[in-house]
Automatic annotation (TrEMBL):
Keyword Zinc-finger attached: no
Family note: Belongs to the universal ribosomal protein uS15 family.
Keywords in alphabetical order: Ribonucleoprotein, Ribosomal protein
SUPFAM superfamilies given in the database record: S15/NS1 RNA-binding domain
GO BP field: translation
MF terms in GO: small ribosomal subunit rRNA binding; structural constituent of ribosome
Recorded superkingdom: Eukaryota
Name the UniProt record assigns to this protein: 40S ribosomal protein S13
Cell cycle listed as a keyword: no
GO cellular component, one term: cytosolic small ribosomal subunit
Source species of the chain: Homalodisca liturata
Length: 102
């Protein structure tokens, strides 16, 4: 598939691909007819990133969950009796393990 040059430059410098991709679609969607074609655009970006070997080693959603779990762990090291945070940490860890399977 042909990749617009604007999109390739965006993917090369983007740390948060999903955020930058949605901004790209908002700004240039009519130009490239990308407004209603969500899954096609994401497939196109994944293909482009794999082809140019600039895909992140860890997927974006997984790294965000790991960061969130680390923040909760840090909070729990200061507030050991926070049962709500303990429960949330269990939920976050289960989401991480579910994502790792796929």
């Amino acid at each position: 598939p042909a990749v617009p040059e604007d999109l390739s430059a965006l993917v090369d410098k983007a740390n948060n691909v999903r955020k930058h991709l949605s901004m790209f679609k908002k700004d240039n969607g009519a130009k490239y007819r990308l407004i209603l074609i969500n899954s096609r655009v994401h497939r196109l970006v994944r293909y482009f990133m794999k082809k140019n070997s600039c895909a992140p080693a860890v997927p974006e959603d997984l790294s965000a969950l790991v960061d969130k779990a680390n923040n909760v762990r840090k909070h729990l090291s200061m507030f050991k009796k926070d049962n709500g945070a303990k429960y949330r940490l269990i939920l976050i860890n289960s989401r991480v393990h579910r994502l790792v399977r796929y």
